[in-house]
Design a protein that fits this description.
Blueprint lengths: L3 E3 L7 E3 L3 E4 L4 E5 L16 E4 L4 E2 L2 E2 L5 E3 L1 H5 L11 E4 L7 E3 L7 E3 L3 E6 L5 H9 L1 H10 L11 H4 L3 E4 L2 H46 L7 E3 L7 E3 L3 E3 L5 E4 L10 E4 L3 E4 H8 L14 E3 L4 E3 L3 H4 L2 E2 L4 E3 L4 E5 L6 H7 L3 H8 L4 H4 L5 H4 L4 E3 L2 H44 L6
Parallel strand pairs: 5-11
Antiparallel strand pairs: 1-2, 3-13, 4-12, 5-8, 6-7, 9-10, 9-12, 14-15, 16-25, 17-24, 18-19, 20-23, 21-22, 21-24
Helix pairs in contact: 2-12, 5-8, 5-12, 8-12
Length: about 425
């Protein structure tokens, strides 16, 4: 049994008796771009010096193909961040704590202000630092120094200088690196396989929805051209109609006793209280100007601010919602709600909706005028119900399988996290 001792550091606990606790400032130099030094995205180009940003980190390496380029004087003016092969990098803004080791550098390379260079001395193995920063030791320390801070967090260089961590002799560091490199590679292969299966199941579900809502579920039916590119061929008994024939716009102001609702691609339209309970977080609540809120009736469809990304939302409840949203009232004689609920979440329909405006560039919200530009399939109510029943039966089974895979993936990720922590703290001897 390895002899252990108290490290004397709250977030570390016990370490092997022959290990030390060291601060990173005694083992490495840290460097980052001082502000942006006037650097703007207007300077980005397809040639010149490589500029590493947080989005270029991928599986512990730099994805050089995704890097932008900047003029060479940007590399010359910041000598402290002229990158070399073997350098360790960590993101300090945005998604904090992503780590990469520079390999196969294709040319002169610099950093943007969101990335920090960590260049260790001969006492410390670069990959040992890489694994240490990926461990819970780093995240416990980061949580303590940011306790009580705002929700927008940063890894400040001056704070990082004082990051303390367990530190063995170089020979032991190399054993730890060899063990984690080998074992985590195997774990990562399992993780990637599970992610691939989950992705394929998701694609399979989308394909089933697309086919059912645009072509029906009878494989023997005769098809005809719809006349609309977004949907292609449709069953011969279907028609394409102007959206206003199926849906009208609700313009009611909120009622006095209406409950505040939240629009979510994940949950649809639900009460704000329920959303906060599920997510475990607060959302901005309307305290002034309630008179401009709109009424939503149970069974309405809602065009939300993100409908161009994830389709229209269906409301199972009545209440009030932001005036930025548009409520649609289904024509009960022609619309079976659950069929159109599936249609409005299909990939084909969302693509058609996106085509009504350059929404991303203009930053505008979807309007009723966008909605009515997309002609919709009109079919017998009984057939709408059959399609909805089919999707209500098949899709939850796929979701259930995805859920099982996600739980397995979660366990594997937790095991990897635990293994790294146990090894870099010496609690597991290798």
């Amino acid at each position: 049994m390895r002899e252990m001792k108290d490290s004397g550091v709250e977030w570390i606990g016990e370490i092997p008796a022959d290990w030390q606790v060291r601060k990173i400032k005694h083992l490495a130099t840290l460097a980052g771009r001082i502000g942006w030094q006037g650097l703007t995205s207007n300077e980005y180009s397809d040639e010149g010096v490589y500029l590493i940003t947080g989005v270029n980190f991928y599986n512990g390496k730099i994805d050089w193909q995704s890097c932008v380029h900047v003029p060479e004087y940007r590399w010359e003016e910041a000598k402290q961040i002229q990158i070399k092969n073997g350098d360790l990098l960590i993101t300090k803004d945005g998604t904090i704590g992503k780590v990469a080791i520079v390999e196969n550098m294709p040319g002169k390379t610099s950093l943007n202000s969101g990335v920090l260079l960590v260049r260790n001395n001969d006492e410390c193995d670069t990959r040992f630092l890489y694994w240490m920063i990926q461990s819970d030791i780093f995240w416990r320390w980061f949580g303590i120094i940011n306790a009580g801070n705002s929700t927008i967090l940063h890894l400040y260089q001056q704070s990082f200088y004082n990051f303390s961590f367990p530190f063995p002799l170089l020979s032991q560091q190399k054993k730890i690196v060899e063990f984690l490199d080998s074992n985590c590679k195997k774990i990562d292969e399992i993780i990637e396989k599970q992610k691939a299966v989950i992705e394929k199941l998701g694609e399979y579900k989308l394909s089933i929805i697309n086919e059912a809502v645009t072509q029906g579920i009878n494989p023997d039916v005769n098809m005809k051209q719809s006349g609309y590119k977004w949907i292609g061929s449709i069953p011969e008994q279907w028609n394409m109609v102007y959206a206003k024939q199926l849906f009208s716009q609700r313009k009611d102001r909120a009622f006095e006793d209406d409950e505040q609702l939240t629009a979510s691609q994940k949950y649809g339209i639900i009460s704000q209280k329920e959303f906060m309970d599920i997510e475990g977080r607060q959302v901005m609540q309307v305290l002034k100007g309630e008179e401009i809120l709109k009424h939503v009736e149970k069974g309405d469809f809602v065009i939300s601010m993100r409908s161009f990304q994830g389709g229209l939302e269906y409301s199972e409840v009545s209440g009030k919602i932001s005036s930025a949203y548009v409520m649609l009232i289904p024509n009960r004689d022609k619309v079976y709600n659950r069929y159109y609920k599936w249609l409005f979440k299909s990939k084909k329909y969302i693509s058609a909706l996106q085509g009504t405006s350059n929404l991303i560039r203009d930053g505008q919200a979807l309007r009723f005028s966008n909605f009515v530009q997309v002609y919709l399939p009109s079919l017998d109510l009984d057939e709408q119900k059959q399609i909805a029943d089919y999707l209500d039966d098949v899709c939850p089974k796929i979701d259930n399988e995805i859920g099982k895979r996600e739980k397995l993936l979660e366990k594997v990720l937790e095991y990897k996290k635990s293994l790294i922590y146990e090894v870099v703290t010496g609690k597991k001897e290798v």
